[in-house]
What does this fold into?
Amino acid sequence: MTEAARPLAGQVALVAGATRGAGRGIARALGAAGALVFCTGRSGRGAPPATPGRPETIDETAELIAAEGGRAVALRVDHAREEEVAALAARVRDEAGRLDVLVNDIWGGDRWIEWTQRFWQLDLANARALVEQAVLTHVITARHLAPLMIERDRGLIVEVTDGHHPGYRGQVLYDLVKSAVSRFGYGMAMELARTGVTALTVTPGFLRSEAVLDHFGVTEASWRDAIATDPFFAESETPRFVGRAVAALAADPDVRAKAGLTLFAADLAEEYGFTDVDGRRPRFCQAFDAHVDELARGDGPLDEMGRFLVWSRYCQVHQEPARREQAARLAERLGLRGLGPGIGPAPAAGGERG
It folds into this structure.
């Protein structure tokens, strides 16, 4: 490959949470761009799966990178254990001598999200486990690996979250941890401002992870069959799409201009000119907005799904000044009156004020 095709040649990357989903896609994209990629996570070959029911391992991720012409090392690490992360940092220093890109994509929290439960109904043991797994691991990882960048006065730290709107994500703990990840990226950027290291946050759109494909009963080869079940699936994306977003950021000499921001992979595709592996540029947000706006302009009562979609979008965008008119239309459709940038009561059945 040419140097232009491998803009990260000679660089070293570490993807924490590279076992599956976005983490695997990012690791593969960084490997394809020429970086040596350390793939870390708890699910190693021969060890019990860290996420019940999921067979993927970091070893498979490293093998995929190698099969695609890249270089990768799989290291089993529990990022909640500080001593293991400290040992990881020492190993990267000894074996690679540098670190150019750190990606924090540790998740594994689905089993602790109780989507139908409100905050006064939560299992606090689940809450503690989720915060430790989905937030504290990111802090521990950055704490021990960022010094490898700071001492060289260069590098990129990427937090991976879900959603780039400032509004609510549908469940209080899910919202808490995903917002915290974005805020951590922002906070790190502020504290790195006098260094040559950049921190920011990236989010995919409708991600066709291994678990999502299994949920819809399709494979990557047959994913379009799921559009009949969920029309929004037509604008879904492979994990390598967000991976290409991270690789493009890592190769951008002016990436510091984006420090502290939460960036949407589809927007970065437009800016940097990359596509998904099938040549498409998924536009999930535009498709979702178009459908919700059509619902908002409709007459008569919304059905249950319609209310859910309109309410979900209102929750996501109601705090954004640029979306004030849209939020007002959605609130009116739901029967919520006289709202400012704050939040009104959730709609009852039929869109009446509840």
Observations:
- The longest helix spans residues 124-150.
- The two ends are 60 Å apart (CA to CA).
- The chain has two domains: 12-282, 285-351.
- Residues 295 and 306 are 7 Å apart (CA to CA).
